[in-house]
Amino acid sequence: MKKWVFIINPSAGNGKGKRKWGAIQPRLMFEYEYYYTSGPRKAVELAKNCANNGAELVIGVGGDGTLHEIVEGVSLSNNKSCIVSAISGGSGNDFGRIFPTFSRADELNEAFKNGVQGEFFDLGRLETNHSKETFTNNAGLGFDAYIAYHVNKSSVKKMLNKIGLGKLAYTFFVVKALLHFPLFHLQVNADGQIRNFENVWLATLSNQPFFGGGMKISPTSNPRDGLVELTIVSNISRWKLLLVFGSVYLGKHTNLQAVHTFQASKVGLTTDTITYRHVDGEYAGKTRPHQEDCFSIEPRAVASLTTMSS
Ligand SMILES: Nc1ncnc2c1ncn2[C@@H]1O[C@H](COP(=O)(O)OP(=O)(O)OP(=O)(O)O)[C@@H](O)[C@H]1O
Known about the structure:
30% of the residues lie in helices and 34% in strands. The protein is an alpha+beta fold. The chain has two domains: 4-116, 3-Layer(aba) Sandwich (Rossmann fold); 126-298, Tumour Suppressor Smad4. A hairpin with a 3-residue loop joins strand 10 and strand 11 (215-216). Helix 2 crosses helix 3 (64-76). It binds adenosine-5'-triphosphate. Residues 9-13, 37-42, 62-66, 69, 90-92, 281-282 line the site of adenosine-5'-triphosphate (ATP).
C-alpha cells in the first residue's frame, strides 16, 4: 500500500504552515500519516523513520528550515526511492521555487490517485573540523548568516510575530548588520584553485538559484548538475551593498564588480576571523580562524517530485 506522510512544523511562518494544513487536511480523500514537529531537528528523525518504514512520499508543511531537516532525514535513511515534497508554509519557501510542491487538497487527491514519480537532485554537504551538515538550497558564511543567527535568537522577532510584523525584525537586523558586521578575509579553494578575497561580506554556495526568500543569488545553479556555485560579495561600501541586494531579486548582480562567482564540485573556505555560518538559512555555528570549511555536492542523493517539463 502507498504510504504518504505529512510532517508539519506548527511554528513555521508564524503559524502559516499550521493554518494551511488545517485548511487542507479535512479535504484529503486518501489514507496518510501525519506528525507535528515539537522543536528544532525533530523533523530529521521523523523523516528518517518514515522513509525507513517505507514512505513513498514525505511532504513537509513549513518553510526552508523544515524542508532542510526533512531532506537530511530522508538522505540518512535506507529508502533511496522516498520522494520529498512540500506544502509551502514558511516565510522563505525557496524549496518550492525550484522543486514541485502542493498547495491544494485536490492536487494531492489527484496525485495520490494517479501516482507520483521521483527525480533525484544533488545534496550539498558541509564538513568542518567540528560538524557535518547538509544543504538543499544553499549554505554559506558571513552577513546573511549573521542576520539568520540574530533574527532567530531575538525576542524582538517573537514579539513582532505576535502582532503580524515579524518581517520588521529582519529589517532591524539587516540595518544592524550593515552598521556592525565585521568584514573578513577569505581564502577560497575551488577544486584546487586558490584565490584570496579581502573585505568580504558573504560567501554563498548554491545548489539552486534562490536564496533568502526569492533572491536569485545564483541564476545558473541547477540542483541536478553535480556542481555547486560560489558567490562572493567583497570590497563594497555598506550602503552600496543594499544596491547589490536590490539587484539580486532580478539576478542582475553577477555583473557588478563586487560580486565574484565560481563553479566547482568541491569548495574549501577559510576565514581569518570568526564569522557566522548558515545552511538553508538556519544558523550553523561559527567558523574558526584558519580552519577550512569544506563544501561539496553529493550528486543525485535525494528524490523530489518529477518536474512537469521532464
Ligand atoms: N514545534 C516547533 N517549535 C519551534 N520551532 C520549531 C518547531 N518545529 C520545528 N521548529 C524549527 O523551526 C525553524 C524554522 O522553520 P522554517 O524555516 O520551516 O519556518 P520559517 O517560518 O520559514 O522560518 P524562517 O523565518 O527561518 O524562514 C526550523 O529551524 C525548525 O527546526
